[in-house]
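Entry for the shared binder. Reason: the reviewer on the internal report wants the predicted structure included alongside the sequence.
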Amino acid sequence: MKDRTLMMAAMSHDLRIPLTRLRLRIEMAEGLEDQQKMLDELDTLADDQVIERLTSVKGFGRWTAEMFLMFRLHRPDVLPVDDLGIVKAVQKVYGLRKRPRANRILKMGEAWRPYRSEASWYLWQTLRADFSPTAGDNRLRSR
């Protein structure tokens, strides 16, 4: 165990990676075979079960699991309410003074079922464009 710790400390210094991050990467690599089996099974599980499985892996949180559901498993009904982009986009699109809390976004998102992943994508796009609730009206009037 001492040799392994010394080796990790040396690698951490040489690679300029914090020791804790290096340790996490090594642990993840060591469990790769088991994780590959788990990943193969994820496609058959319900969204909540996928989130539960992924968050049981050290270093994976709910946000990562939701992104995995949306972009790897292509699940159509995921609403990542803790994603800062979604929070800011909902605030912007709905003209809210304060950032909405997760429970409020969930309530709003009920109207987007069963396509909340697609709704999320559109919300993210509003952050890239000059969008405000009245911007569309102004563009239409100027033509």
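Summary line for the report: The chain has two domains: 2-59, 84-134.
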